[in-house]
Amino acid sequence: MKKILFTLILITTSFSMSAQTIFGKWENRDEETNKVDSVIEVYKKDGKAYAKIVEITDKKRQEAVCDKCSGKRKNNPILGMNILTGLKKDGDEWSGGKILDPKNGKEYKCYIKLENDNKLKIRGYIGFAAFGRTAYWHRKN
User: Fold this and answer.
1) Closest CA to 54 of 18, 73, 27
2) Which H or E element spans position 16?
3) Does residue 17 sit in helix, strand or coil?
4) pTM attached to this predicted model
5) Fewest 10 Å CB contacts: which of 4, 26, 67, 137?
6) What is the pLDDT of residues 95-137, one digit of tens each?
């Protein structure tokens, strides 16, 4: 009986701990329609957070390229592209990296913060965080 109880506690703890992380798959929703337009996977590499687009829901856009990007990303497929790079943990947020908006090809400084288990706040900005835009990603089930 003790083994069963211990196993249940361990499973419950691991589920709640995994939900309290920025890492995993997140849905990006269109600001006008609130429909999911892409799925982004946030992952950890060398102690930093990165994110790439792993799914585009619009079948017509699945082969789209970043024609407005510059450098190495110019004309590369958006699907599979890293859009969030080099964020370091700083208290309850991750900052110090950049985010790419594939729609306009521009990169912005950014920080991300877990609002709750299923909602991630992304703030992209130029210069100071007060001058920017906030988006929210929702955890993919």
Assistant:
1) 27
2) helix 2-19
3) helix
4) 0.82
5) 4
6) 999 999 999 999 999 999 999 999 999 999 998 888 899 999 9
| Tokens 């990006």 -> residue | 28
Domain spans of the chain?
22-139
Q: Which of 62, 36, 11, 10 is nearest to 141 (CA)?
A: 36
Question: Considering Cα of 114, then 27, then 131, then 77, what sign does the dihedral take?
Answer: positive
What's the topology of domain 22-139?
Answer: Lipocalin (2.40.128)
Q: CA neighbours within 13 Å on the CB side: how many for 73?
A: 23
Amino acid identity, position 108: Y
Question: For residue 12, what pLDDT is reported?
Answer: 41
What contacts 1, CB < 8 A, 6 or more positions away? none
Nearest to 61 by CA among 39, 78, 47, 49: 78
Q: Which of 37, 32, 17, 36 is CA-nearest to residue 114? A: 17
pLDDT of 16 strictly over 60: no
